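Listing 4. Sequential folding, example run.
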Amino acid sequence: MSVFRGGVTLDPIADALLKQVRQELGYKEKSGQTTKFGHWYADRVQDTQYRDAPWCDMFIAWAADKADIGSYVGQFAWTPSHAAWFIKQNAWAQRPEPGALVFFDWSGGKSYKGIDHVGIVERVEGKKLHTIEANVDRVWLKRKVRDTDKVVGYGLPRLVKAGADQAAEIRTTEQPFVPAPRTDVGRNSPLDILGTPPALLAAMVLVTVVLSLRLTGRRRGTHRRFTWPHPWNAPTPNPERPERVGAAPAKSTSHSPPQPSPRPRRAAPSGGAGPRAGKATPSAAQAAFGGTGSPDASEAQPAAGGRARVPAGAGSPTPGSTRRNPYTPKP
């Protein structure tokens, strides 16, 4: 920390900047108006035109970078832009102080747009400014004594730092409380769409359509009855003889009721397979009665309803016969 003449204490930024620029006093530009400061700036911004450009402001940018205070001093090559930057940072003043950047307009104007030159205030004595400037007297980096009548204003690096620190403090106090972690469903969950207005509207439309279809079906009587794959048909009742539930169908309806028999014999098939297809074979009952021919034609015809008639002599006595049925018990 340096102490200025009269007991004025320099701020750390001004002290660091002045120490750096004092080390370069006496520097002289090279042939072709080239300087190490111009080469440094051209490489930094990737533009070769600054290698032989006026270097008063590029020298200050170089010194601030070497002192690691470039963020507060600013790094420019055109002096009006550098002054505008201080104005924007609320670091522009009309009173000089050590370590401030002083901007001149040789025509005496007071607008930053007419600035021609810049230097660094080393100390102030009355109305005289003791400065360190580059690119003065055509080729030198040296000390100068200036009047204040050509000064447009002063840029104060310490105010830039103060503004930056205040802004950082405001940013850290914008949200003093850390929000608690959320435990509900994430915003990208598929369930979020269920509570949205489009989902509710779609559900209402669907319910309305279903109710409309049901009411329309009732009014028009369009309810359908589902049937089994194979519908059940009730049997056609026989008008001549009612069938007993669970009993086998009657063999014939043209004979008298059968006599009780101790051992019922099964009737021989009427037209089963024989020596020649289509020719009936005499049954055992016909042989007992001496029958040798074919069954009566009327008996061989199928009964009404698709049931085959039982041949004569197979079980029940034939009407008009005088011979006793051998299967009937004796009285």
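-- end of first protein; second protein begins --
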Amino acid sequence: MALLLLVVITGVLLLHFTRFGRTTFALGSSRSTTYLTGVPVRRHLVLLYAGNSTLAGFGGLLMMARIASGDPRAGSGLELAVIAVVVLGGATLAGGRGTVTGTFAGVLVLGVVSASLTFLQVPGAFQSLVSGGILVLAVLATAVAERRAGRTGDTGWSGALRRSLPRLSRSRS
């Protein structure tokens, strides 16, 4: 658990308080726009893939230590759960939006659901069904929120903030 918290805190600090993080979010929103702003997109993508593979290797080592063997099939079938966690945490499948803390919250929610189903002795196939159902509901909720934001012309947190603030008169004459 301490290693998970270390990775989450490092990710939050890296993505939200550095130029690298702002560039990463910009790259997720629009690769061509990020390129046009002068960011070396290919170099940044290589750094992102290197970091991703490092964390995947780290996760593989932790999985190997947990099950006490080097079975290459140990993580198969977890893809749906990973996607459900990330979407449940607030990330969009289109990219450009999402937070490390949201993903951490998604991990906690899905972990509690999975532990509850295990405690209730629900078979593994039904647990995957519940995970898929959570994924579908999260994607639907995200799509509805995006559609509502798209109707007003503003998307994301800034649009929601603008809509919630009182309207100020533009003419001061």
